[in-house]
Amino acid sequence: MNRKVLIPSDDPFFLPGMKLAYEELGFDVVSGPENLWNTDAKYDIIHLMWPETYCFHSPPNAGLLKRLRATLGIWRRKAHLVQSVNNFYPHGYIGNTAYWELYNIFYESCHLVHHFSNSSLEQVSGEWPVVENRRQIVTHAVNYRHLVHADSCRKKLRSDFGLDNDAFVLLCFGAIRNWSEARLLIRALSQTSIQGFRVLNAARYRRVPGSITSMAQKLSWRFWARFSTKFFFDQVIPDEDVYRFFGAADAVVVPRIDSLSSGIPMMAMTFGRCTVAPDSQTFREYLPEEANEFYTPGDPESLSAAIQRLALRPRASAEAKNFEQGSSYSWKSVITKCLHEISSR
């Protein structure tokens, strides 16, 4: 009989790779956040991802925290609990006391804390002392091989978007987590002057629920993006279409200011694309320095200069290096290391 693992998540980007890796290693996989509450089920491993999933991405109340502590306490006695660290805090809530307690409950309950970078280990250990009493492991990043499509000719994909083949195309992709990130992009892109420069904008502003200010900021982002970037897609991009955006681009920008990690560089490397990323320990751990460009976090002039440096340099060898690096990352390797750590103690 195969061992069973529960991944109580429905994340569209991480979950497919995780499920496939566990299945290749001989596990039966159950997913979905709702299954965390069914403590009558039997699993060998529960691989936890985002704690904020269980409070619908809003600060939890005392009742929910109590219920989660009790539920995870039951699971801790029945299965091996692995917590992968994806965020320092939920986006926009750094220092929030309710979220601090939520994360503390998850770290306190798990047997193994899994980090994707040494920077993650250092920051989380400094904020949540309880992790010092838990086993911790640092692995490499992961890739998004399941999103790659055979039909990835850059010239054809650009033609589909109406982009010139000889343009320098910068992709904005994923979530804009707060107004500081939006303002950084607006200022940097507005002052970037490159012949044939085009922005393929598939970045969505993530507003704080119930906040009038956040709603106004989202509308401002939409207004700027719609009238200042010719190619703006204000919608969730389905998995089956992600390759079209990365395949058409020369480079991808990561507008993070205060972030533990981001999946965008890993996605870019999966497709062999260059990244313009914040100059921080986390991103330098992921990205080959010689194949990408870095900028001072939060500085629009520095970001604009990094974009221009990348646009003016030969990129064929850099793309090959990024693809090689991305291909060396895998969920199977990450899961194997976690399983080894569990079984060795």
Summarize the structure.
With 345 residues, the protein is α/β, with parallel strands linked by helices. It has helices at residues 14-24, 62-78, 97-109, 118-127, 154-161, 179-190, 212-228, 242-248, 264-270, 281-286, 300-312, 316-328, 331-343, and strands spanning 3-7, 27-31, 45-48, 80-84, 112-115, 135-138, 168-176, 197-205, 231-232, 251-253, 274-278, 293-295.
Mean pLDDT: 92
The number of E-state strands comes to: 12
Per DSSP, what share of the residues sits in E-state strands of 2 or more residues? 15-25%
Number of helices: 13
- Could you give me the name of the CATH homologous superfamily of the largest domain? Glycogen Phosphorylase B
User: How many angstroms does the end-to-end distance come to?
Assistant: 23 Å
Give the % helix.
40-55%
CATH architecture heading of the largest domain: 3-Layer(aba) Sandwich
Categorize the overall geometry. globular
The top-level CATH class of the largest domain is Alpha Beta
Number of domains: 2
The fold-level CATH name of the largest domain is Rossmann fold
- Kindly report the spatial arrangement of strands forming the biggest sheet: 2-1-3-4-5-6
Q: SSE order in H/E notation?
A: EHEEHEHEHEHEHEHEHEHEHEHHH
Q: Provide the gyration radius in Å.
A: 21 Å
Instruction: Give start-end ranges of low-pLDDT stretches.
Output: none
Strand count, sense and barrel status of the largest sheet are: 6 strands, parallel
Global structural class? alpha/beta
